Fold:
Amino acid sequence: MSEPTAVNRYESASAWREVDSYFVDALDLEDEALVAARESGSRTTMPNAEVAANQGALLAMLVQIAGARRVLELGTLAGYSTIWFARAVGEGGHVVSLELEPRNAEIAAQNLERAGVSERVEILVGPAADSAQQLVEAGVEPFDLVFIDADKPSNPRYLAAALALTRAGAVIVVDNVVRDGAVVRADSGDARVEGVRAVVEDIANHPDLDATALQTVGLKGWDGFLIARRR
Ligand code: DHB
Ligand code: MG
Structure:
């Protein structure tokens, strides 16, 4: 098979976006609070990094299929996926979201308030590995689902934290595992790609984890999710 030309690569990306937009509109996936949270992402330290609406809906569906009541998220940013999780766990559910940057956490807090889910969400500000360690030391109730979506070089440490904070049967989702296909390059020299490959290896070698990974295309370009489950 030949390499795609620059022109058809562009056309593909544009078609992917159009299809995502079609489903997001046709399925009416975003309300005003989600739109506002998405738009506020431009004020965070990492604009446009939030999941697409149809991806947020997938995460929410995983929560509901798994019957998860307690969700741990690493990487809050503006709280876009946090809103999806908070709505999915329902009243009585709880979401803990870990965010490095105080400014992002403040923006997220406003978005959660607007979405009416503040009382089920706790944002812990600081390095996610430190906050996770504090949760371990505090002996918090185990989480049912963990979403790893913070700095990619730390993915292996975040997996270890997720394992320390979950029960058998828990689901662990890792975002951004494809990175425009760069994941296949063992010699990328990119610490983010290395973080993905290292966590994939750790998951593969863990005796109690089943896992798969799926590529996604759409509004977020070409990327993917890894989904693991503790036996
Ligand atoms: C990056 C991180 C994300 O969580 C994301 O969804 C997209 C990109 C990044 O580090 O480049
Ligand atoms: Mg992400």
Observations:
- The domain at 14-230 is CATH 3.40.50.150 (Rossmann fold).
- The chain has one domain: 14-230.
